[in-house]
Each structure stands twice: as structure tokens, then as C-alpha cells.
């Protein structure tokens, strides 16, 4: 009896010591620079959002938040590195629809579990995808694109940042709903995909708005339509794909996560800071002009959203019979 009581006392003491250590860590946090892993190369929407938030976090926390691009494998390389990082709040990462919600249905041996290996902090933005084309590509409307694709089955090519990426699934959804055969060409990241579209190697791309909007405004790319259910405030003259293709709706999102086991006090601190940043007028306006819609959620709300997204995109992957490995 004495041994059992002593054992329970020791366990309780250790638990209290662990909690005290975590609390002390959170109270002094941050005491050194923070690494923000973006699991894609520079230039994409995830990178744009990550850098906007990193700059503001640096100002608010008094420590540098350093963006580290770890592209490759449709976000797998970067998220694997994040999952393996120390759960001390000094390594956090950008979480996006592809790596977090689509990859579980694409890869049988995914080296991370989106729901077990990460501590959700908050969702940051959602943005509808923008269908852009090379200026030399004849179709100038979604209706014309459908007619052209039907007259040239398999001869029109659309780029994406990688197999299973939200841009890929947006294209497969379009193929299904519009009853066309447009060929997917995967790239290793958004930057290379946009570069080849600008060069005319492919004809079209379903893209996050921040990474292509300046090319559209300069005339180097044509914006055909957005994937949102309604027209965007930032692009009021841009039609939606759904105006031509009934039922079409394609969004992506960018959130923030930490390695599982990161102290809750640190998670809450980061959640508060990022939520405040996204509500700042200059930040919100900058994001809206980029076509991104700021959002903020509690860690629990973000966890539930990730679960819903895994189920949603898993159904699309199965329906389109998309295979990667």
C-alpha cells in the first residue's frame, strides 16, 4: 500500500513539475528566433501568406520569425521536418489543404499523420482558386474553354504545383463537371508551374490568387474566372467558374501548426498574436487585395476543419481515381 501511494505521489510530482516547466517556458517565450517552415518553394500563395504573417509576428514577439522554404513531395518534405522538430514553439509551420487534407488519401506511406503529429494553431486565410491562361491561348471565357477542350481532347494542358495539390483537384473537378479531358501536368511547386505557364509550355493553371494576381494585372496572364461561389470583392469584374459550370466551387486555405506536444500556453499565445495580426486593417486589406480572405479559428475549430477537409478531398480523390504511389 505504501509503495502504491509513493508511486502515485511521484507520478503526481512529475506531472506537476512537467506542467510547471511548460508554463515557465511559455511565460518566457520567445527567447530566441522562431523558424517558420513553408512546405513549398518561394513564390506560391502559401509562401506569400507565410511571409506576411512572419513579418508581423517578428514585430509583435520581439524575435525574428525566419521563413524556411522546404519544398518537395507536395508538401511532404516540409511537414515531415516540422513533425520531427522539437515541440518547444521555436519551429512552426504553414499548413495547407494539399499536404494536410489531400495527401492522406494519395499516399499509403505518408511519413506524418496530419491529425496526430501536429498541434493546430489557427487557420489564417481561405482563397478561391483563380483559373488563369497564357495570353496566346485562344479561349477567353470558360464557355470557350469548354468548347475548345471538347474539340481537342487531351491536347490542352493545365499545370499544378504537384499531383494531389488543390490546383490539381480543381482541374479534375472541372474535367468532371464540364465533361472535358484537359491533361494535368504536375510541377515541383507553384513557382515552376507559373514559370512554365508564362513561357507557354502549358496553357492554363488553377492557382492561388496571390501568386498570379500581378501577372494578371500586368497582362502577362489572362484571368478567366474564380472558383468561388460568388464574385470576389477584390476582383468584382471576374466571373466565377460556377456561372458557367453548375456546382463548381474550389477553395484552398493556409493555416498554422506546430509539432504535436508543443505546450498549450505557447499554442494559445501564437493563436492570439496571429488572430490580432489578421484583424489589423493594413494586413486584412493587403490580403483581400491578393484575393485571400482572412479567417481566424481556435485550435479546436481548426482541428475540426482539418478533419472535414480530409473527408471532403478524400472523396474527390476516390471519385477521380487519382493515384500517386
What's the quick description here?
This protein has 325 residues and is of the alpha/beta class.
Topology of this structure?
Elements: H1 2-27, E1 34-38, H2 45-61, E2 65-69, H3 76-83, E3 91-96, H4 97-106, E4 118-133, H5 142-151, E5 157-160, H6 166-178, E6 183-186, H7 190-199, E7 204-208, H8 213-218, E8 222-226, E9 251-259, H9 264-279, H10 281-289, E10 293-294, H11 299-320
Parallel strand pairs: 1-2, 1-3, 5-6, 5-7
Antiparallel strand pairs: 3-9, 4-7, 4-8, 4-9, 4-10
Helix pairs in contact: 1-9, 2-9, 4-11, 6-11
Explain what this protein looks like in three dimensions.
The protein is α/β, with parallel strands linked by helices and 325 residues long. Helices cover 45% and strands 19% of the residues. Strands 1, 2, 3, 4, 5, 6, 7, 8, 9 and 10 form a ten-stranded mixed β-sheet that branches.
Quickly list its features.
10-stranded mixed beta sheet; 325 residues; 45% helix; alpha/beta; 10 strands; D-Maltodextrin-Binding Protein, domain 2; 2 domains; 11 helices; globular
Tell me which CATH architecture of the largest domain applies here.
Answer: 3-Layer(aba) Sandwich
Strand content: 15-25%
Alpha-beta classification = alpha/beta
CATH classification, class level of the largest domain: Alpha Beta
H/E element order: HEHEHEHEHEHEHEHEEHHEH
Q: What overall form do the CA principal axes indicate?
A: globular
Radius of gyration: 22 Å
CATH superfamily of the largest domain: Bordetella uptake gene, domain 1
Number of strands: 10
Query: Unreliable segments (pLDDT under 50, ≥5 consecutive)?
Result: 15-24
Total domain count: 2
Number of helices: 11
In CATH, the topology of the largest domain is named: D-Maltodextrin-Binding Protein, domain 2
Average of per-residue pLDDT values: 89
Helix proportion: 40-55%
Largest sheet: 10 strands, mixed
Query: How far is it from the N-terminal to the C-terminal residue, by CA?
Result: 55 Å
Amino acid at each position: 500500500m505504501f509503495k502504491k501511494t509513493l508511486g502515485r505521489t511521484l507520478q503526481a510530482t512529475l506531472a506537476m513539475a512537467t506542467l510547471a516547466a511548460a508554463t515557465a517556458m511559455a511565460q518566457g517565450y520567445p527567447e530566441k528566433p522562431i523558424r517558420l517552415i513553408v512546405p513549398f518553394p518561394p513564390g506560391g500563395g502559401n509562401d506569400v501568406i507565410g511571409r506576411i504573417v512572419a513579418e508581423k509576428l517578428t514585430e509583435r514577439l520581439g524575435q525574428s520569425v525566419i521563413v524556411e522554404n522546404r519544398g518537395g513531395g507536395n508538401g511532404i518534405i516540409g511537414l515531415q521536418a516540422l513533425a520531427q522538430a522539437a515541440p518547444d514553439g521555436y519551429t512552426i509551420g504553414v499548413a495547407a489543404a494539399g499536404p494536410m487534407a489531400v495527401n492522406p488519401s494519395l499516399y499509403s506511406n505518408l511519413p506524418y499523420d496530419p491529425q496526430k503529429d501536429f498541434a493546430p494553431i489557427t487557420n489564417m486565410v481561405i482563397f478561391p482558386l483563380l483559373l488563369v491562361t497564357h495570353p496566346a491561348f485562344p479561349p477567353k471565357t470558360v464557355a470557350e474553354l469548354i468548347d475548345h477542350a471538347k474539340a481537342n481532347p487531351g491536347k490542352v494542358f493545365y499545370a499544378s504545383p504537384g499531383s494531389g495539390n488543390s490546383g490539381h483537384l480543381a482541374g479534375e473537378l472541372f474535367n468532371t463537371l464540364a465533361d472535358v479531358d484537359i491533361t494535368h501536368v504536375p510541377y515541383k511547386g507553384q513557382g515552376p508551374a507559373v514559370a512554365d505557364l508564362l513561357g507557354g509550355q502549358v496553357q492554363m493553371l488553377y492557382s492561388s490568387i496571390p501568386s498570379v494576381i500581378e501577372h494578371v494585372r500586368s497582362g502577362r496572364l489572362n484571368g478567366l474566372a474564380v472558383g468561388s461561389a460568388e464574385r470576389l470583392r477584390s476582383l468584382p469584374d471576374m466571373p466565377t467558374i460556377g456561372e458557367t459550370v453548375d456546382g463548381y466551387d474550389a477553395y484552398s486555405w493556409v493555416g498554422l501548426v506546430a509539432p504535436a506536444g508543443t505546450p498549450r500556453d505557447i499554442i494559445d499565445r501564437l493563436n492570439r498574436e496571429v488572430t490580432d495580426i489578421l484583424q489589423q486593417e493594413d494586413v486584412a486589406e493587403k490580403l483581400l487585395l491578393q484575393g485571400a480572405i482572412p479567417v481566424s479559428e481556435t485550435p479546436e475549430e481548426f482541428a475540426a476543419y482539418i478533419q472535414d477537409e480530409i473527408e471532403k478531398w478524400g472523396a474527390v480523390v476516390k471519385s477521380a481515381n487519382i493515384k500517386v504511389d
